Amino acid sequence: MSAKLAVIILTFNEEANLPAALDSVIGWAGEIFVVDSYSTDRTVDIALETASRGVRVVQHPFENYSAQWNWALEHLPISAEWILKLDADERVTPAFREEADRFLASAPAEVHGVYFRRRIFFMGQPLNWGGVASNYDLRLWRRGKGRFDDRGVNEHMLVSGKTVQFTSQIDHHNSKSIGDWLDKHNRYASLEAINIIKGNLYGDVKPRVLGQPDQRRMWLRKIYFAAPGRCLAYFLYRFILRFGFLDGAAGFRFALLHAVFLYWIDLKIAEYRQTGKLPEVAWPARGMPHPKLDEAKIAQQVEAPHA
């Protein structure tokens, strides 16, 4: 077990995904926290069933992704030296655990963050082409050395020191339906359109063609949103130039759906310019506080901010 590592998972209605995510870190991470935003399914029950295995659960009202993450970093009783951001539909692989263990055992003091990639599974099939496995995100950082910038979605972790990159990946499985994917990306499109309308295209990340992975991604975003015919170009880039067609039907569907998602963003911005009304974000209804959490020790531990 890595006493130096804490894992945080944000959840809302993740009963289909959460068990596999927890199984991938229980017995490895020294601390595991689930921060739920009032799920209406069995998400909290599933998390509470693993309390005897070291999982701690808390609920907090959801404002946006950045705010939820920063609240967790400020209020959770984290004692581990390093924090891993894990989505409920992700799973830590054995190779990643081994690489993380080696790194954490002797991490230089000047290193505050780690970039790594995710292996995407779409409709049960791994995507090996299309460029989807080449994106590095900063999702492992030293406690007290990072914060999330102010973006409603696609938030960025910002650290003050040096960073490194892992060669291993974690797996991204979504066990929910295509309908759920469409609903979620409709919300994401609204949130991203609002970001752009408000001039928050990059967050606090400065676009740089030769910078860190997220800086390079913001530079590409800058080019993308200035290009005509960009949604079609994006599809052709993913499916043809990056050989997404080698993933067969799953590669086609994934590239097409993401191009459509980007087109939704353009449509929502165009509608705002016509009407002056910000895009609506279709959030599902939130539930009530879980009654069993009133007795959990963590509910008392998060009342005051922590360093």
Q: TL;DR?
A:
This protein has helices spanning 18-23, 43-49, 65-75, 94-105, 178-197, 213-224, 230-241, 248-275, 297-301; strands at residues 2-11, 29-36, 55-59, 82-85, 90-91, 111-122, 125-126, 136-142, 146-148, 157-159, 162-173. With 307 residues, the protein is an alpha/beta fold.
Overall description:
The chain is of the alpha/beta class and 307 residues long. Helix content is 37%, strand content 22%. The chain has nine helices and eleven strands. Strands 1, 2, 3, 4, 5, 6, 7, 8 and 11 form a nine-stranded mixed beta sheet that branches. A two-stranded antiparallel ribbon has the order 9-10. Strand 6 and strand 7 form a beta hairpin. The longest helix is centred in the last third of the chain and has 28 residues.
List keywords for this structure.
307 residues, alpha/beta, Spore Coat Polysaccharide Biosynthesis Protein SpsA, Chain A, 2 domains, nine-stranded mixed beta sheet, two-stranded antiparallel sheet, 11 strands, globular
Task: Please specify the SSE layout and strand pairing.
Blueprint: E1 2-11, H1 18-23, E2 29-36, H2 43-49, E3 55-59, H3 65-75, E4 82-85, E5 90-91, H4 94-105, E6 111-122, E7 125-126, E8 136-142, E9 146-148, E10 157-159, E11 162-173, H5 178-197, H6 213-224, H7 230-241, H8 248-275, H9 297-301
Helix pairs in contact: 5-8, 7-8
